[in-house]
C-alpha cells in the first residue's frame, strides 16, 4: 500500500492545485500512467504514477491547493488486500505550503460521487463540468484519456480560437510564473557557486550538412540547428559526467542517463525547462520530434510531471535572432546549464586568416562544488568536436 | 480562396501552433519572430500546418515570405 503524493515539479514549486483526476477507485494503474492534472505556476502538469497497482482511494479533492508531499491517493500493489484507508493514508506534514492547508480535508473522500455520465461516455469530472459550462455535448468529443475517456484538454480544444482566455488572466498567470522563476533563480544564485566558460563553435560543417539534409525533406521531416546542438551536448554530457546529475543533501550524484532540459520561452515572459528523456540515445529525427512535441505541449500547458522533475542538465538558446552570447543560471538541483547565443556569421581565424563563418557562442554555467573550469572547458570542446562531424550525430 | 480568406486561415493555423496568442490581437503586419515571439520550432510547425492546409510546400529559403499574415496571404495566394 503506497500513498501517492503531490510530486515536486521543480525547484520553484511549493504547491499545486489538483484540477483533474483521470482515475477512480478500483482502476488499475501502471508505471508512467497519467493519473491527475495539477495546476502550478508553470501551467497545468499531467501527473504520472511511478508504480503498478490499483487505486484504493482518492484522498485529495479537486480544487484543493496542496503542498509538495501532500497525499493525493492510496495505491495498493497488485494482489495486495484492501486496507482501511484511514490507516493506509496517514496525513503527511506539508512542506512549506504557500497557504495553510487543512490536513483533515486530505482524509475525506471526494465530496460527492461523480454524476452519471450521459450515454455511458467516460469523462473526468473536470471535463464534464467544463463541457457543461461551455455547452459542449460530451457525445461530440473524442477522448484522449485512459480507455478513451474525455479529459479536460479534450473539452478545451473545442473552444473556438476566437475566444481566448482574458488578457488579465494571462497577465496574472505570467506574473505567478515570474515569481516562481525569481524564487528558483534566487535560490540558485544564493546556493550554487557558479563558474562560466565560453566557447565559439564554427558551425560551417553543421550548417552545410543541415541545409543539404533539409533541402530534400518535406517540412515535417526537417531538422533545426537546435537539435544538432542538443544532440552534440547530450553526447558530450555522457563523457563529462560532472555536468550531468543532481546535487542533493549528500552532495553530487551523477546521472547515468542524460535527460536534457530544454528551456522554452512562453510569450509574455514565462519560461519552462522540461526534459527530453534519454536525449543522447535519440536519433536526430526522434530528438526533433521530441523537441516539437515538448514545445507544443509547453505552449498549451500540458507537460508531464516526469518532464518537469527529471532533467539532469539544461540547454537554453536565444534562437535565430538576438545577441551573440548569454550566460545562464543553473536550475537546481542540476549542476550545469549550456546557453547558446544566436547563430550567425562571426569573424573566425582559420590558418592565420580572419574569415567570416557561421558560428555560435556557447556558454557553460556550472556548479563549482562539482567541477571546475578545466572540466567545463573540456565539455564545451567536446560539444564543438561533435558538431564538426554532424553526419555522426 | 481570396487573400482575406487565406489570411484568416493562416491566423487560425498560427494560433493552433501557438495557442497562447490572441488572434484578435494579431495585426496583418505583425512579424512572427519580432512581434509575436515565435521561435524556430514554432515557425517550422507553422510551415508544416500551412503545407497541410493549403498544399503549398515552403522551402527554408522562403520562410521570410510568410513572416507576417499580410506577406503570407500574398505568397500563398500566388502558389495555390
UniProtKB/TrEMBL annotation, chain A:
It holds the Pfam family Biotin_lipoyl. Its EC number is 2.3.1.-. It is an enzyme of class 2 (transferase). Residues 122-159 form the Peripheral subunit-binding (PSBD) domain. Residues 79-122 are annotated as: Disordered. Belongs to the 2-oxoacid dehydrogenase family. This is Dihydrolipoamide acetyltransferase component of pyruvate dehydrogenase complex. It comes from Thioclava nitratireducens.
UniProtKB/TrEMBL annotation, chain B:
SUPFAM superfamilies: ACP-like. Keywords: Phosphopantetheine, Phosphoprotein. It comes from the Bacteria. PROSITE patterns: CARRIER. Residues 1-80 form the Carrier domain. This is Phosphopantetheine-binding protein.
Amino acid at each position: 500500500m503506497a500513498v501517492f503524493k503531490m510530486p515536486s515539479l521543480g525547484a520553484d514549486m511549493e504547491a499545486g492545485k489538483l484540477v483533474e483526476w483521470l482515475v477512480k477507485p478500483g482502476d488499475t494503474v501502471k508505471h508512467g500512467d497519467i493519473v491527475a492534472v495539477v495546476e502550478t505556476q508553470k501551467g497545468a502538469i499531467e501527473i504520472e504514477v511511478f508504480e503498478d497497482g490499483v487505486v484504493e482511494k482518492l484522498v485529495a479533492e479537486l480544487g484543493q491547493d496542496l503542498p509538495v508531499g501532500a497525499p493525493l491517493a492510496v495505491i495498493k500493489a497488485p494482489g495486495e488486500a484492501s486496507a482501511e484507508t484511514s490507516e493506509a493514508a496517514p496525513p503527511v506534514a506539508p512542506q512549506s505550503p504557500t497557504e495553510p492547508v487543512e490536513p483533515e480535508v486530505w482524509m475525506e473522500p471526494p465530496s460527492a460521487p461523480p454524476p452519471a455520465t450521459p450515454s455511458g461516455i467516460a469523462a473526468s469530472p473536470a471535463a464534464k463540468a467544463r463541457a457543461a459550462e461551455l455547452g459542449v455535448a460530451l457525445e461530440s468529443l473524442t477522448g484522449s484519456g485512459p480507455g478513451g475517456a474525455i479529459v479536460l484538454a479534450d473539452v478545451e480544444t473545442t473552444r473556438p480560437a476566437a475566444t481566448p482566455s482574458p488578457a488579465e488572466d494571462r497577465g496574472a498567470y505570467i506574473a505567478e510564473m515570474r515569481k516562481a522563476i525569481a524564487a528558483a533563480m534566487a535560490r540558485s544564485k544564493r546556493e550554487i557557486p557558479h563558474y562560466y566558460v565560453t566557447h565559439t563553435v564554427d558551425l560551417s560543417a553543421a550548417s552545410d550538412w543541415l541545409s543539404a539534409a533539409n533541402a530534400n525533406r518535406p517540412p515535417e521531416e526537417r531538422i533545426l540547428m537546435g537539435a544538432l546542438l542538443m544532440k552534440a551536448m547530450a553526447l558530450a554530457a555522457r563523457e563529462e559526467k560532472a555536468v550531468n546529475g543532481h546535487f542533493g543533501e549528500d552532495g553530487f550524484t551523477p546521472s547515468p542517463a542524460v535527460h536534457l532540459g530544454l528551456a522554452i520561452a512562453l510569450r509574455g515572459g514565462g519560461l519552462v525547462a522540461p526534459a527530453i528523456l534519454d536525449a543522447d540515445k535519440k536519433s536526430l529525427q526522434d530528438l526533433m520530434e521530441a523537441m516539437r512535441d515538448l514545445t507544443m505541449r509547453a505552449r498549451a500547458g500540458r507537460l508531464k510531471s516526469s518532464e518537469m522533475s527529471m532533467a539532469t542538465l539544461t540547454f537554453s538558446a536565444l534562437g535565430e535572432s538576438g545577441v551573440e552570447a548569454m550566460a545562464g543560471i543553473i536550475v537546481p538541483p542540476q549542476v550545469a546549464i549550456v546557453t547558446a547565443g544566436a547563430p550567425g556569421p562571426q569573424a573566425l581565424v582559420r590558418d592565420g586568416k580572419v574569415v567570416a563563418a557561421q558560428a555560435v557562442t556557447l556558454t557553460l554555467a556550472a556548479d563549482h562544488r562539482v567541477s571546475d573550469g578545466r572540466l567545463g572547458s573540456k565539455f564545451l570542446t567536446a560539444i564543438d568536436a561533435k558538431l564538426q562531424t554532424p553526419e555522426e550525430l | 480562396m481570396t487573400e482575406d480568406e487565406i489570411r484568416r486561415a493562416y491566423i487560425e493555423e498560427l494560433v493552433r501552433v501557438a495557442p497562447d496568442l490572441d488572434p484578435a490581437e494579431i495585426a496583418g503586419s505583425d512579424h512572427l519572430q519580432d512581434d509575436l515571439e515565435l521561435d524556430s520550432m514554432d515557425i517550422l510547425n507553422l510551415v508544416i500546418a500551412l503545407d497541410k492546409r493549403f498544399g503549398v510546400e515552403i522551402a527554408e529559403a522562403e520562410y521570410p515570405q510568410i513572416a507576417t499574415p499580410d506577406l503570407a496571404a500574398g505568397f500563398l495566394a500566388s502558389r495555390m
